Amino acid sequence: MMAGKFTQHVFNLGFSSGRAIHNLLLDARSSSAHWPSLSEVCSIANVDISSVQLPSIQSVFTYVVTFLSQLPNRYRIWWWNLLQSDPLHVLVETLLIVACIALVVLQRRADWRFSQERKKGAPTDKDIEHLLKDWKDNGRKPLVSRKEGTITARSGRGESKYLEVGSGLVVDKIEGSRLFLDLELSKEKNNCKLPESVLNFATLDYIATSSSPILRKTALDALKHYGCGSCGPRGFYGTIDAHLEAEEAVSNFLGTEGAILYSDGASASTSTLAAFAKRGDLLIVDEGVNEALLTGINLSRANVRYFRHNDMKDLRRILEKVQQQDVSLKRKATDQRRFLVVEGMYRNWGTLAPLKEIVALKEEFHYRLIVDDSHGIGTLGKSGRGSLEHAGLKPMVHCEILTFSLENALGSIGGMTVGSEEVVDHQRLSGAGYCFSASAPPFLSKVCVQSVKRLQGSLDEGEEEASNYDDMKVAELKEELKKRGLKTAGKKAELQSRLREHDSEPAAGSELAGPALLDRLRENISHLYSTLTNSSHPYALKLRNRLSITSDPLSPLLYLRLADQEATGRTRSEQTLIMDQIAHHCLVNGTVAVVSTGGHVKKYLQLVPEPSLRLVASASHDKEDVEVLVKALGEAVESVLVHNASQME
């Protein structure tokens, strides 16, 4: 009875308090509004204030202590009853509690061990002082510092001489076919006298984009307009109109539905492959592909099978074997995504993929084709559209996914993948390099647009100057005419017309573009290859039976390795050192820059090429440059191989 009466009092008290607060809020604008006291609330609720007994602090404390003291016994009784009624529930709950306690203890123990290891490995104040002093006294160490003994013919015997090659060269600028070295920085890392400039047969500048005046002007104008970087990924706030223009220009040039621009050349092929191939898919890959493709293959976690480099018989054997497994497992070919992965022109080999045969096999066995054409775009095909055009094929029709770098023939930064709208749009959410990397600098995307126009022969040369003639005054127009040695008489319209006619005329020594540019590159490739293999040439004769060409005659990448009779009996490290010494001799004595590849292509490759010299043909070369190169190679080979052989005897 008392409990019911007390409950009624509590209800009346709560209801009256709520109503009072409601009235207070309604009359908040009135100055007479005030908060009711406990006595007022009780009077409104018709409750005697003396009957409302509030608990004392002592009684509350006693209740809490009693409850906490009885809690273990109550939990024991509850746990025992639960164990009898549902033992499985108790077992699972106990295991979870034990696991949580173990995780907390182990994590704390691991954190403690890590902190102790950091304390052990951390340098002391004395060590830090020593490192700082060494940095101030000696400066930064070279990135590559290799000192090895001179290798004599077929043995490592002889005097121990040390020569540091292939490291520490700093290029100041590129003008035409010449590299200009920063001698002050280069001398700090080389113990020999270096020439101020050398012939450039080292960089992958196939169509002379690095020294193009128009491309330089495009870059400079765009840099002033956009600034340097974009400061964000493409999917957030890093997309600028220059990026969209580059994608549209390349897509139109190659005849595809779309293109996607990556900010790094290597990540373009890596991210593209990993975006389409997933765990459980099948990749049939040429064993000679480059490191970027192999990284994408590893990231995809797909099943991988390699066929011998450019061996179509071995490719057919693997495809037929997979087909037989499908029959035995009663598996359809469409149950998994399947891709053939090749390069159009192989970067580490200089060979061309037989794309016609590959496409025929792809269609016969129902695969999709991924082609990395980083070194074919701008060098192969009638109009420079790459290895597919060279083979008479088209993207989207014969090749589902075409990816390539913009950092070679197009002279920009980044890479692109072209194809259908589905191929492009899929990568905008699945391409890791697109989603998580800052976008390419806009001014270099403008260079890409202009490079495509250069390949098409439609350079915007003098367009800005012509458009400014309308804004010039007569005196300014006459000054421009005077500078160019033209007549200054006439009205304003005549002066403007005279300037525009002069600008439209091809200047002496004007920059090559379009078919003429590609023809020059092909002529230089042919002349370089024929000169190196000319047995009647006095310096090419010195290369005979000592170096052999392993690349394709149509490739601007020429690879020279030791001939069989010179390579026999030598280890890979010995062959690498010989190539390094030949490249060093060409640089110092012949003023020609070539690349020795033995020391930097062996990591992360499925098939490692033999140590070689890499020569790069460019549209900026002429016949005299080729003669200088062949002479430098002949003298270097004779000096390194013949001199070392005589030392052994």
The overall pLDDT, averaged over residues, is: 82
Structural class: alpha/beta
Strand order across the biggest sheet? Answer: 6-12-11-10-9-7-8
Gap from first CA to last CA: 123 Å
Largest sheet: 7 strands, mixed
Shape: extended
Number of DSSP E strands: 17
- What level of helicity do the residues show? 40-55%
Q: How large is the count of helical segments?
A: 24
- Taking all Cα atoms into account, the compactness measure Rg is 38 Å
Q: Please indicate the percent range of residues in DSSP E strands (runs of 2 or more).
A: 5-15%
The poorly predicted ranges are: 143-166, 461-467
Explain this structure to me?
- The chain is an alpha/beta fold.
- It is 50% helix and 11% strand.
- It contains 24 helices and 17 strands.
- A hairpin with a 2-residue loop joins strand 3 and strand 4.
- It is extended, with a radius of gyration of 38 Å.
- The termini are far apart.
Précis, in short:
The protein is of the alpha/beta class and 649 residues long. The protein is built from 24 helices and 17 strands. Helix 11 (312-329) packs parallel to helix 12 and helix 18 (474-483) runs parallel beside helix 19 (492-504).
